[in-house]
Design a protein that fits this description.
By secondary structure, the protein is mainly β. About 0% of the residues lie in helices and about 55% in strands. It contains no helices and 11 strands.
């Protein structure tokens, strides 16, 4: 079993930045992928970004390209999401995810989920 613990959410003004972190513990073997989804109030959960275990492959949702950067420390099995130029529409609960295997944007492809961290962007 793999446990994911997120940190770094909070309240920020539009145009500001936040960095989310997610540390994995337990049995996860290479190759693996980690990433982020988010869910705004009253909306479906959406893919944000994902990265493979080596950091050599990343994928982003169009809505965050150029503003968010995902990275990974595979020695610590920790994934980061640097969020810049934040907009009110980025307000959501952000979920860290992980899977054994290759990178994917598909929600059901991720077996492991964190508890979520709230990000609120004020206008």
């Amino acid at each position: 079993q793999v446990q994911l613990v997120e940190s770094g959410g909070g309240l920020v003004q539009a145009g500001g930045s936040l960095r989310l972190s997610c540390a994995a513990s337990g049995r996860i073997s290479r190759p693996y992928a980690m990433g982020w989804f988010r869910q705004a109030p009253g909306k479906e959960r959406d893919f944000v970004a994902a990265i493979n275990w080596s950091g050599g492959n990343t994928v982003y949702a169009d809505s965050v390209k150029g503003r968010f950067t995902i990275s990974i420390d595979n020695a610590k099995i920790t994934v980061y999401l640097q969020m810049n130029s934040l907009k009110p529409e980025d307000t959501a609960v952000y979920y860290c995810v992980a899977r054994d295997g290759l990178i994917t944007m598909v929600e059901r492809g991720y077996a492991y989920w964190g508890q979520g961290t709230q990000v609120t962007v004020s206008s």
